[in-house]
Specification:
mainly alpha; 9 helices
Length: 194
């Protein structure tokens, strides 16, 4: 029966979906500012509990988004999330920050609102592989060239699989671009996961 609550609810229900995510990020930022700059030492923090409750609800409701570090990003299934987190942490721990940043950029492109940039996400993901291979070999090449010139790094059927991956990323509009071609979400997640 609260008129202010009803008024706010009406405004929120008229928003485009991605504007609600902008609002959630802003709420987190305001809570975080309060936690770090204005709160008394004995006050309970609010920003991270807000983020956790939001993520718990999104997972419960089957919403494919999550808040990480106060930013709304696309959420994949558990296996995808585990793979991406492991890749980022292992790359950073190994001193390969550029490759880790490329993975983060792929996730950001996958999470653009209102329309994700799937081609950009694939480009960043394959760029992460190129960064890693450049660091290992000391040679700057495209991923396709690594597959051809370093077959020992891709034994057996892996050489064919990674060659096909590179071909898909290059020819399906992801790296070189083709008018009217945008890779689907599922295939983009697959490439990022690999």
């Amino acid at each position: 029966d609260d008129l202010d609550f009803i008024a706010v609810k009406r405004v929120l229900l008229r928003c485009e979906w991605f504007r609600l995510y902008d609002l959630l990020e802003d709420i987190f930022d305001q809570l975080y500012f309060h936690d770090t700059e204005l709160s008394a030492p004995d006050e309970e923090p609010q920003a991270h509990p807000f983020q956790q409750k939001l993520n718990d609800y999104f997972q419960y409701a089957g919403i494919g988004w999550q808040m990480t570090g106060g930013k709304m990003i696309a959420r994949g299934d558990d296996a995808f999330e585990r793979i991406v987190r492991t890749a980022e942490s292992e790359l950073k721990a190994g001193g390969r920050t550029t490759a880790a940043e490329r993975i983060e950029s792929a996730i950001r492109n996958l999470s653009l609102r209102p329309k994700p940039d799937f081609s950009g996400a694939i480009s960043h993901a394959t760029g992460a592989m190129e960064c890693l291979l450049h660091d290992i070999t000391g040679k700057g090449m495209t991923f396709g060239e690594y597959v051809k010139k370093y077959p020992d790094y891709f034994p057996g059927a892996m050489k064919t699989a990674f060659g096909a991956l590179w071909g898909y990323a290059s020819e399906e509009g992801a790296r070189h671009g083709k008018e009217g071609i945008e890779p689907p979400h599922e295939e983009t997640e697959f490439i990022i996961g690999i």
